[in-house]
Design a protein that fits this description.
Length: about 280
């Protein structure tokens, strides 16, 4: 048994020459400014290589495998959650480049245009399912944000639209549905900022249940799309933080009522600056 003072981990080599081969591989990784990566459920050497090198091809993942053969064993496909790997030659994951498309306000304007279908998105608008306003707010979200109260609302079994039959709390001056539609006291802009903060917190909460966070995914590609905080916020706005987490963890799509893919929002709204970068 050999203790590595550089990684703080125990190496358990086989007997004979293999001892020197395996410790040499780890030493090479450390000398190349390697960083440590804890394997998560569902990870493979290829997607770990893509995260750190921007390339999941065999040459890249074998570089990781050869540096960690003593940990992984003779079969490179046999990764187990909790294994600690040394990634040769990298201190940080290499993010995929994405163009800076503007500010958080630019993102919200783009979101309003997408949601309303108007170049100059109006506040006083409602669709056939009762989603309303520049950002197409629903009952459940405004309940969560403290603007609205209702015992029965869209999203519950058997409720087929937002009926807005509940009561308004008066938060930020919105005492009625019409106050909200009129954007009294700029209430819709206040509400969307609050909504994005809530969704970001809930998305991280969903990921933390699996030992992950948004930091693990930012800069990676999924279905060819570079993951950014603005794209994740938009995906969460479309289908909720739980669906956005399942998209990241399981590559699971979750289209909305009109058939819009959650990946469409991840892609369409990527690359804007956000308060969560």
């Amino acid at each position: 048994m050999i203790f590595s003072s550089l990684t703080g981990s125990l190496l358990l080599p086989e007997l004979g020459d293999a001892v020197f081969q395996k410790t040499d591989a780890v030493a090479q990784a450390q000398q190349g400014n390697g960083t440590r990566h804890t394997v998560q459920p569902g990870e493979f050497l290829s997607n770990i290589a893509e995260r750190y090198y921007g390339d999941g091809g065999e040459a890249s993942w074998r570089r990781i495998y050869e540096a960690n053969r003593g940990v992984i064993g003779p079969d490179p496909t046999q990764l187990r959650a909790g294994m600690v790997l040394v990634i040769p030659g990298n201190n940080q994951p290499r993010p995929n480049p994405v163009a800076n498309r503007g500010s958080f306000q630019d993102m919200l304007l783009a979101l309003g245009r997408r949601e309303t279908g108007r170049q100059n998105p109006p506040y006083n608008i409602e669709n056939s399912l009762g989603f309303m306003g520049k950002y197409q707010f629903g009952e459940a979200l405004l309940i969560d944000l403290g603007y609205y109260r209702a015992n029965t609302y869209y999203g519950q079994p058997g409720v087929n639209k937002n009926y807005w039959r509940g009561t308004w709390t008066g938060k930020n001056g919105a005492n009625s549905k019409q106050d909200f539609l009129n954007n009294k006291n700029n209430v819709q802009e206040r509400a969307i900022s609050e909504a994005m903060s809530l969704k970001w917190s809930r998305l991280n909460g969903e990921l933390q249940q699996r030992g992950r966070s948004t930091r693990d995914f930012i800069g990676r590609r999924q279905r060819g799309i570079v993951i950014t905080s603005s794209g994740l916020l938009a995906a969460s706005h479309l289908r909720g933080p739980k669906a956005a987490a399942e998209m990241l963890l399981f590559d699971r799509d979750n289209p909305d009522e009109n058939g819009t893919s959650i990946f469409a929002y991840l892609n369409e709204f990527r690359g804007f600056r956000t308060p969560f970068d």
